[in-house]
Specification:
Elements (H helix, E strand, L loop, with lengths): L1 H11 L16 E5 H4 L9 E3 L18 E3 L7 E2 L9 E4 L6 E6 L2 H21 L3 E7 L2 E4 L2 E2 L13 E5 L3 H12 L2
Antiparallel strand pairs: 1-4, 1-7, 2-3, 5-6, 6-10, 7-8, 7-9
Amino acid sequence: MLRNMKGVLAGLLLLLCAGCGGDDGGERFALYHLEAAIGPPGEEGELQCGPPRAVCPGILEESPTRVFRYPVLAKPALTTEDIDRSSARRAADRSTGTAVVLVDLTTEGTAAFARLTKEAARVGGRDQAWHHVAVVVDDEIVAFPQIDFDVYPDGIPDSPEVQIAAANDADARDLVQRLRGD
């Protein structure tokens, strides 16, 4: 069950994250510590979030009707080189049955993910507020799961994969295609 929870949190992170190496046809992938590396929503910025996402960072309305832009303030903690693109696949979350995308991490990606989640948990614990990991595909924030510092005070070590919550099954299929470069 603990391994299952690690996968869920690693994925939901843990709310959308494909070979190793550089650009091999798929879209860019990155994970950021949301509160430390991405600025507030506005009209300008390198990243975007909007439909079909049900929620976007810093936006109170559910199912936003427009696209919001976010400035990038720091480098991503994980990039395309840290995932196995060919492993991107659709699945159903075991606890909720909702559509997710699973992507295997490389050895380096597993270590980087552990560092990222440890930082988010520790800073969140210090701030007494959950911090988030922003999952970015191309220039879109597709998920931003929270890291519960009470449950994972030292982050999520040794996670072999990232699980990304999708808006629906069609969105999961689209994300898999984008990550794999199909």
